[in-house]
Amino acid sequence: MLQPGDRAPEFTLPDEQGIETSLTSLLDGPLILYFYPADFTPGCTRQACRIRELHALILGSGLAVVGISPQSPDSHSRFRDRHDLPFKLLSDADKTVIRMYGVDGPLGIGVRRASFFIEQDRTVKGVMVADFRIDRHEAFIREAAEVAAS
Fold first, then answer.
1. pLDDT tens track for 45-93
2. Is the CB of residue 92 less than 8 Å from the CB of residue 114?
3. Closest to 31 measured CA to CA, from 53, 8, 13, 50
4. Residues 61, 148 contacting (CB under 8 angstroms)
5. What is the 3-state secondary structure (H, E, C) of the chain?
6. Using N-to-C axis directions, what is the helix angle for 42-53 and 134-149, rounded to 10°?
C-alpha cells in the first residue's frame, strides 16, 4: 500500500459517464482519492453520503474528491444519481488501479476502504485505511481540508 511521501501512480479510468479520466487531469489542486468496495452497499452508501455532506467544506478548502471501485460506469451513474453525489466515481473493473494503490482485499477478494490525500505534484500526503470505521474517513477528510485551506 502507498504510504505518505510516495508518488501516486498515474492512471486513466472511465468515470460514471464513460469518459476516460487520468489522475493528472484530477490534480488541479490537492485531491482526496477514496477507494470503496461497491456501489449501493450500506457501508459504501453511508460513506459516499457523508462525503457528499462534506462537499462544501472540501471545495472551500481547495480539495477535490473522487471515488474508485470495481463497478461499471453505468452502476456508478445510477449510484451518483440516486444519492445526489456531486463528485466523480471512476470504474476500475479489472482492479488494476486498486492493486497499484495496494488496496486489493485479502487474497485478491474485494477492495479495502482507503482514502489517500494526494498533493498536486502526486505526492501522497496522507493515508487512511479503515475498512469498517467510516467515521475515520470523515475525520481524515476534515483534517485534509484544514491542511489544504492553510
1. 999 999 999 999 999 999 999 999 999 999 999 999 999 999 999 999 9
2. no
3. 8
4. yes
5. CCCCCCECCCCEEEECCCCEEEHHHHCCCCEEEEECCCCCCHHHHHHHHHHHHCHHHHHHCCCEEEEEECCCHHHHHHHHHHHCCCCEEEECCCCHHHHHCCCECHHHCCECCEEEEECCCCEEEEEEECCCCHHHHHHHHHHHHHHHHC
6. 20
All three cell numbers of 105: 482485499
Dihedrals φ, ψ of 103, to 5°? -115, 20
Q: Write phi, then psi, for 128 (nearest 5 degrees).
A: -130, 120
pLDDT of residue 130: 84
Catalytic residue ranges: 44
> How far is residue 98's CA from residue 57's CA, in Å, rounded to a whole number?
27
